[in-house]
Structure formats: structure tokens, C-alpha cells
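Morning run. Coffee first, then this:
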Amino acid sequence: MPKLTVEGAGTYDVPAGKRLVNALVDECGTDQLHACGGVARCTTCRVEFVAGAPARMTQAEKDVLAAKGITTPGLRLACQITCDADMTVRLVSRLAGSGRKDCGHRPADELQPPPQWT
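And here it is:
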């Protein structure tokens, strides 16, 4: 079972293969945003990797990061990542202070859109 460490919150066991965005809410109890429902359109689910960033990226993640001009190393979309190894993240986009009424509707259990790996 991979370990997910969230800076300032703790370290949690996460089921292997679970989407990071859902693990952040379910296992870690964070208020991580995911306004588009986890389909790689809005970038509200972005996190900053401190350690354990996955080497591969979906084409959808690559495209939306480029379209939004997000080039900061370590910033990734939690909706496009599965928990397959230990990782440490810093929350960047949270409900608290966002002015939104909620985090967004729950993303599906599987990656959306179906992943094309780069």
C-alpha cells in the first residue's frame, strides 16, 4: 500500500492505483479542489510534488498544463495521477479561501479521459 504524505497534514496509507485527487479527499481528509470533476480541464486539482512525482504524464494533463501556462516544476494535476508509489505533495488548490461553495463533484474512480501516456 503506497504512503501519501501531505505537507502539514500527515502520512496516509492509500490503496494502490487510487486516483490521487480522490485519495487526498478520502484517505487524507483534505479540501482539495476538483471543480471539473477530475477530467483534466480546469487545473483546480493541482498539487506540488515534494517527492515521488510520477515520471509519466497523461496527454490530457500535458495539454491542459500547457494551455494554462503552468510551467512550474513539480506542479501536477492530482486528477491525472494514480497512487502507485510513495509520494509527498503540497496542497496548492484548496476549498479554504477559494470562494467556491464546494470542492466540485466527486471524480470517477478511473482516470478521465482514458489515459494516453506520454
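The two ends are 25 Å apart (CA to CA). Good start to the day.
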